[in-house]
Structure formats: C-alpha cells, structure tokens
Amino acid sequence: MKKIVSILLSIFLFGIVGCAPENPEQKPAEKPFPNHYAEQSFDQIQAIEKNCRTDNESLTENTNRDSRATLWTYGAYFTAVAKLVKVSPRNENVKMLARNALEELEWYSCSGINAYASDNGKESPIFFDDNAWLVFGLLEMYAAFGEQDLLNKAIEIQEFIYTGWQEDLGGGLLWRQFDPKTTEDKDYVRNTCINAPSAMNAALLYKYTKNTSHLDWAKKIFAWTRSTLKNEALGTYFDCIDRAGNIQTAQFTYNSGCMLSAAALLYDITKEEDYLAEAISIAEGSRALFAHEHLSSSVEGEFYSDNAWFRVYLFQGYLDAYRYCGESFKSFMDGCLKGYDYAVTKNYYDRFGFIFDRWDGSMKPDDDPVYQTGCREACGNAQSMAVFAEYVEESSKNNQTAEEVLN
User: Fold this and answer.
1) From the CB of residue 351, how many other CB atoms can be counted at a distance below 10 Å?
2) What is the per-residue pLDDT for 326?
3) Taking CA 368 as the corner, what is the angle to CA 61 and CA 387, rounded to the nearest 5 degrees?
4) Over the stretch 157-209, which tens digit does the pLDDT of each residue have?
5) Considering the domain boundaries, does residue 151 fall inside one?
6) pLDDT, block means (10 residues), the chain with 407 residues
C-alpha cells in the first residue's frame, strides 16, 4: 500500500511539473526561485547530490560515500528538500527533487506498520524521533502542493508516534519503541527531541485538518515537556528523563527550537497569552545560551553553536514566532540571517562546495586533510537557507501589508 501511495504522489508531483499555460507570452516568466536564499539552498542540495551519493545513487552518511544514510540522515535530507519545495513550489527542478525524495523514502519503510527505520526498515527498536522529522517534511510538502496523500501519510506516522505516550509514567513520548520489560530504567527515556517536534507537528496537523484530537495532543505533549524538561533558570530545554526520574541536562538548539515553534503555533490557534509568554521565554533563553557575537566588533550578526542540523530547528522556531507572535521576534531572525550572510560574503565553503558548519569561520574544515563533510550537517545548512528564504518572503509580505495600511 505504501508503495502505491508513493507512486501516486510521484505522479501528482510529475503532473504539475508538466503543466504550462497555453499562451506563455500572456504571463511574465516566473522567477525560478523567490530569492537568492532559496537558490543557495538548491545549490547546497545539488552539492549533496554530487558528493553524498553511492554509485547506485543511494544517499550516504558523508562525503566518504561508503555507507548508506541512516534514517536520521535521510530525514535531514527529506526535510531540506521539503522546505525548499515549500518556498519554490513551481520550480521544476525542485519538484523533481521532491518526487525522488518521496520515492527514496520508501526504502526505509517498515513492514506492517506506518513507520520508517534504518536498514531498509529493519532497525529495531524504531526511533520515534526519526519519524517525527518525516511528519514535518510531509507537512511542508503538503503546504506546497495541497495533495491529500501527503497529509494522510503524515497523519499515519503521527498516529504511530502517539503510541509512544507513557500514561503510566505521568506522560511523555518515548524516544524509541522500547520494550518496558527488557529495557533498563536508564535507557527507557522520554526525550525533548521527540516530544517537542511531535507537539509542533500535532499543532500543524490541527491547523490543516481542524481535527481537535491533534490539538489535544499538541497541548498535552507541550504541557508535559514544559513541566518536566524545561530549564526554568534560562527558558531553554533539557535533553531527556529516564524511567527512574533522572534528567539529562544537556541542551540542544533543536529541542528549544521545536518547543518555540509549538508555543507559537499554539498561541496562534488558541490566543492564550501563556503560550506567547513561553515563546518569549524560549527565544530569549536560546539567544542567551546558544548565540554569540563575532570576535571582531565590526562584524554584524549572531552566530549559533551546535551543529548545523540541530540549529535549523531553532531558526524554524524563530521564524514561527515571527510569523505567529509578531514583529517583536524579527530581531532573532535578522541576527541569524546576518550571521549566515557573513559566511557567504567571506566565501566560507569547503572543498566539496558546502558552507562551513561554523559561519563565523572559527573552524575551517579544509585545514584537516582527511576531513569529510557530514551529509546531515550539509542538509541542515541547506534547510537553514530555505528557512531564511521563507522568512524573507514573509517579511516582505508583512512590510507590504504595513505600507498598504499606512496608505
């Protein structure tokens, strides 16, 4: 059944590619990309296609090209393509990428369950969080095309993720599909990296379907994560809690970023001020913890720690906060954008054509003769560029609306 759905999706995407007006001279030619950030995202994905594929064209973990990508890495590629197609839905080359990405995803399909896993779907126990990123990517593609099969697939995976909820432990989604009888307490963990994106995705599903079950899940998951794993001193989020109640206090950009997206979405849906206050708390805490200025005071912008794939979801969180909570969040996105622009201006690209992981130039990978670029990190940077492309379009739209009001 999943293979049939994949074929139908491919036909849908291919069909739109071939559509053209009968009298093209009557319409001005459309730009291939909405702005240069989208074009740069496409260029980075093209570099991935060139340098992170095996001879039989399977995606690989890095530029060594000696091992097929895990689902985690493939999911990073999938969401990068999905974000790009969301901002460039009429670009034929981008739509071809989306078609191919949907087809390749099915190699990871599990048998007899609406889930995906590494090793041709055979990895066990299944990672719930790897599946959460796929839900997000499918919803991005749905936003671009409005195709019901994409939404249905996202719902199926999301409902599988809901099965990881641990009512007996007071709530929270499991990181993996652990066996409670054979898994030690220290390994039986509920992580922010599954709960935060699942709250975000549930809120998105409610926006697209108006099914209140997804809104209930979004609120429930968000409330548990906030009460259990929030760093109250800073406003950011800790990593996970095990079955014995021990909290791992490591903090990553994507955890706080997805909670920021969820807070912004829930504020937009409910208009409850508590969600807005939480969005402000997360954004300010994340900037304080993860951002730094360049060593040179003449360089504008904010530069974020954590690797490129993790931090893209903080950028997404800032974008969602700007979109749903107002202009007061614009400075967060502008700081990220200026940091990225600095790296481009300085030509901080490695020998494979990938932009550096550290946009301030503090780590130059080509100084290491055996350096290989990680595919997941390259995908994170490509997705970040597409997030910036979306922000520029959103900001331009808001500015135009403001001008119309003034006039």
Assistant:
1) 11
2) 96
3) 50
4) 999 999 999 999 999 999 999 999 999 999 999 999 999 999 999 999 999 99
5) no
6) 50 48 54 96 98 94 95 99 98 98 98 98 98 99 98 99 98 98 98 99 99 99 99 99 98 99 99 99 99 95 96 99 98 98 97 96 85 96 99 88 54
> Which structural domain range is residue 173 located in?
164-345
Within a domain: 231: yes
Question: Residue 365: its pLDDT value, please?
Answer: 86
Q: Which two tokens stand for residue 38?
A: 């989208």
Residue 95: CA count within 13 A, CB half-sphere: 20
Nearest of 329, 326, 227 to residue 271 by alpha carbon: 326
- Cα–Cα distance for residue pair 61/363, rounded to 1 Å: 21
Consecutive H or E run containing 248: strand 247-248
Secondary structure (DSSP) of 325-381: H-GGGHHHHHHHHHHHHHHHHTT-B-TTSPBPSSTTSS--GGGSTT---BHHHHHHH
Closest CA to 262 of 214, 310, 303: 214
Locus of tokens 């697939």: 153
User: Which string of DSSP letters, residue by residue, matches 138-192?
Assistant: HHHHHHHH--HHHHHHHHHHHHHHHTTB-GGGTS-B-SB---TTTS-TTT--EEH
Q: What is the rounded CA–CA span in Å between residue 390 and residue 338? A: 15
Tell me whether residue 129 is in a domain. no
Model pLDDT, residue 29? 62
- pLDDT tens by residue, 233-277: 999 999 999 999 999 999 999 999 999 999 999 999 999 999 999
Q: What are phi and psi of 292, to 5 degrees?
A: -145, 160
Torsions phi, psi for 190 (to 5 deg): -115, 115
Q: Is residue 169 part of a domain?
A: yes
d(CA 203, CA 217): 8
Which residues neighbour 261 within 8 Å (Cβ) at sequence distance 6 or greater? 200, 313, 316, 317, 320, 321
Beta bridge partners of 196: none
Q: What are phi and psi of 229, to 5 degrees?
A: -120, 10
Query: What does the pLDDT read at residue 133?
Result: 99
Q: What is the CATH number of the domain that holds 327?
A: 1.50.10.20
Domain count, the chain: 1
